[in-house]
Amino acid sequence: MAAFKTLDDLTDIAGKRVLVRVDLNVPVTDGKVSDTTRIERVAPTIRELSQKGAKVILLAHFGRPKGEPVADMSLSLIAPAVEEVLDQRVAFASDCIGAPAADAIAKMNNGDILLLENTRFHKGEEKNTPEFVAELAKNGDIYVNDAFSAAHRAHASTEGLAHHLPAYAGRTMQAELEALEKGLGNPARPVVAIVGGAKVSTKIDLLMNLVKKVDALVIGGGMANTFLAANGTNVGKSLCEHDLADTAKQIMLEAATAGCAIVLPSDGVVAREFKAGADNETVDINAIPADAMVLDVGPKSVEAVNAWIGRAATLVWNGPLGAFEIAPFDKATVAAARHAADCTREGQLVSVAGGGDTVSALNHAGVADDFTYVSTAGGAFLEWMEGKELPGVAVLSRTA
Ligand code: 3PG
Ligand code: MG
Asked: The whole model's pTM is what?
């Protein structure tokens, strides 16, 4: 892993203006933040800088306002939740550049925290224009990026600023990069990956990259059907991308060449409707009724998955094995997640999970805290699994 500077390299910062890029793109229901995980993740960096006497100036985006102010994407809606998590006053400025930002910063005392309005209210943010970067840079002496989950974007606040100011990784960015290095960068072997979720089409690059890096690839969820069908299995009414049969075959061929085992379900739990509590039965994968769909992998398959987890030294997990959001089709995901958590607790496994639904699935199984690391990143985690360089990370390494 390329070197990057961390908060350990930041001394004598009392009175310095530190621009901290955080990810406050959190879910909001009825005007209230419904999941504060991302805020909790960046709290240690904010607290540490504040305790060292810095003027802590937070930069973040919220939603996709496309370069102009949109009232319900104002970070003023998130500020109270940030205050609550930090248990410290957080001032707010109505613009991230110009007079509102400058005036608010002029009023700051050492250790104070200020949240600037949504960076995406300006077109220069996503375009990463030199003019906008320069405007942002005026507000700080030092730049800290603690937003791994936005590091796949080469935006002004995630990438551009690091070229202008001394740049450091925050504690969460640091933890994330260290965990990912253990997951795929330089992992203990054998490495097993579990990839689930509905569609192969969104994960082709990811699968192609993984088969070259891991010893076994477990494929679950709706996407398993596409692989099964490519092998000639009749998947009935199951979700299946038949047009991707050749792609699936190509991935299996690459796996065989690289010596990566592909683990597909040998049985499935089928139903006639996609709904919680739907009548269901467990069938051999070669006996899926024509009018039924697979909604979860079956118990024999779970045993095989758990055996692979037991053998593994490293597990990388993205995507559920079945339709975990509707009971009882959550069984396989929950069983495998618990087994991975047990192996991790016993010190036999490094387990790294992330991406979209994965965190909800692990929370649903009650084991998110038992994994070695659970990333709150969606797109950034997927791009990392695809083996891509993330611009927000790359620039921190370059400036180290
Ligand atoms: C996320 O929520 O995935 C990150 O904050 C990035 O947001 P974006 O997908 O709108 O760039
Ligand atoms: Mg996203």
From this structure: 0.92
